[in-house]
Amino acid sequence: MKRAVLVVACVIGICAGVLICLLFQHVLQAETGAKGNGFGAAAEWKALSIQERTSYVEGYVVGYGVGSSDVCEDADRLFATAGPVYLKDGTLNNPVTICKASLDHFTRMGKRGEVRPNYSVYSDVMTDFYNKYPKYSNMPFSFLLAMLSDKNFKTADQLFQKLERHDMQLTY
User: Fold this and answer.
1) Burial 21-36 (b: 16+ CB within 10 A, else e)
2) Least confident segment among 24-38, 57-71, 109-123, 142-156
3) Cβ pair 116, 71 in contact under 8 A
4) Is the pLDDT of residue 101 over 70?
5) How many CA atoms lie within 13 A of 73 on its CB side?
6) Residue 26 Cα distances to 7, 20, 77, 123, angstroms
7) Dihedrals φ, ψ of 88, to 5°?
8) Model pTM greater than 0.70?
9) How high is the pLDDT of residue 81?
């Protein structure tokens, strides 16, 4: 029962992060006017400067990370135990550990030691995808970016193939 509530709490937190990104996307639509031209998300994305694309990705990745971490911390407080719980192998087994272990990440942002993460790794794949595959021009940025997490990271061509084979759940 507690695990089910923990999963629900994690899903709610992640959804909140995605909603923030959708709100950002709505603001971009209003600023660029691309939504009204009938071309969809691809036209909006292409209308952004490279810096704006990178900023969008940075906001999404940072928001996802902070929101997910906050949800896990909240779950830990919600299901607080009298003390730490360890598995037989010595692994800490508490709600925050379980929650954080289940999270996906966005870590393909350059090499260790770089002064600033390079979010263009993600924005370049998105731009390439929108340029090559107009069939998916209405796919929202946030949905496409979610497909570029560490568990799913692909090139634009690999994403297209996966979508064509219906290997990804599409709801947008």
Assistant:
1) beebbeebeeebebbe
2) 24-38
3) no
4) yes
5) 6
6) 28, 10, 34, 18
7) -60, -30
8) no
9) 65
User: Concatenated DSSP letters for 116-141?
Assistant: S--THHHHHHHHHHHHH-GGGTTS-H
Q: Do 89 and 130 touch, CB atoms closer than 8 A?
A: no
| DSSP state string for the chain | -HHHHHHHHHHHHHHHHHHHHHHHHHHHHHHH-GGGGT--HHHHHHHS-HHHHHHHHHHHHHHHHHHHHHHHHHHHHHT--SS--B-TTS-B-SHHHHHHHH------SS-TT-SS--THHHHHHHHHHHHH-GGGTTS-HHHHHHTTSTTT---HHHHHHHHHTT-S----
Tokens of 34: 């691309």
pLDDT tens by residue, 150-161 = 887 788 999 898
- State how far the Cα of 79 lies from the Cα of 66, in Å rounded to an integer: 20
Count the Cβ atoms, other than its own, within 10 Å of residue 119. 22
Torsion of CA 26, 123, 42, 148, to 10 degrees: -90
